[in-house]
Amino acid sequence: MNILVINAGSSSLKYQLIDMDAEKVLAKGLVERIGIEGANLQHRPAGKEEVRIETPMKDHVDGMKLVLDALVDKNHGVIASMDEIGAVGHRVVHGGESFKESVLIDDAVMAAIEENVPLAPLHNPANIMGIKACLSVMPKTPMVAVFDTAFHQTMPAKAYLYGLPIDLYRRLKVRRYGFHGTSHMYVSKKAAELLGKPVESLKIVTCHLGNGSSVSAVDGGRSVDTSMGLTPLEGLMMGTRCGDMDPAIVKYLMDRDHLSIEDVDKILNKKSGLLGVSDLSSDMRDITSAAASGNEDAANALEMFCYRIKKYIGAYAAAMGGLDVIVLTAGIGENVAIVREKVLSGLEFLGVKMDKVKNESRPKDVLISTDDSKVKVLVIATDEEMTIARDTQRLVKG
């Protein structure tokens, strides 16, 4: 079965077509600037040259038509017809409390996703547009929604409730939801597989470190705590997000600088994190380069980023009553050795011993801890698209 995986943004569509019999990516690509001048498709069929097509697209329906045309094109296509697409898996950011797992999409599911728009006003509307676009051009193809939040629905109340009036939870569902769930689920299972142990026997801290970053405590294969909260703003310092802070800062900034709540929201989400502290860039490659050249602000940004990850690892080891495995993944976790080194340094008291040579060797899906390290440390390349495709296939096959 071939599964088409869709990740829709407000003006973009990322896609992968995956042959699930071999778990092989046949083609992937990106439609960007939908509804904007300069709209284009970047299509990368496996084993062939990338194709770039620039053409006006008024909406996501036009974008999906262009994707499907590219997939069946005689020159750069990878399938003979749309009939070879068995199902479509859609990434949906926020499922709220409505969804504890992936589901086949029907009218009731669409209504529930729309009800969760207030919890993810930037993401869920775009995800909905992507689903509707696919339904309009592939009305008979089964569709599955895979939620970023679903994996974390196993958290106990002590982990997901805030110290706020309980009425705010009961009435408005203000609670911790967590994100990057497909990534945390994938790498925790992959870690168990690489170690040759059942995931049910392991206490794992998974660190998804990219422009958006989060840490999760995975006990016996179940998420029991995670760093992101009601929104992706809470938790670690990220590329442009501030992460954990005193909430009274919001009113202080509004009063002192005469800012609106929208102004402060923009500062916290778009102008903070690595970008804000370094006053340079949100890209960790720029930060590490500048820090190595003596830029003090960049050095502080790097140290803060790593320090906060380390604090969460220690906290989650305590929360689970032990620690067997640490997993580092995503763009920074997989590619930036100095970040891994700074995060792991000082965790020797937990039984962590890093092999410096392995850490420097651009590892993927391997141990970077020493043979006698009590806590195993792995660098694993995350694959959220494969997780979405597997869930889609499972549900479609019933």
Automatic annotation (TrEMBL):
Its cofactor is Mg(2+); Mn(2+). Belongs to the acetokinase family. Substrate binds at residue 91. InterPro entries: Ac/propionate_kinase, Aliphatic_acid_kin_short-chain, Aliphatic_acid_kinase_CS, ATPase_NBD. ATP binds at residues 14, 208-212, 283-285, 331-335. It is found in: Cytoplasm. Mg(2+) binds at residues 7, 384. The gene is ackA. This is Acetate kinase. It comes from the Bacteria. The record marks 180, 241 as: Transition state stabilizer. Its main location: cytoplasm. Mg(2+). Can also accept Mn(2+). GO terms for cellular component: cytoplasm.
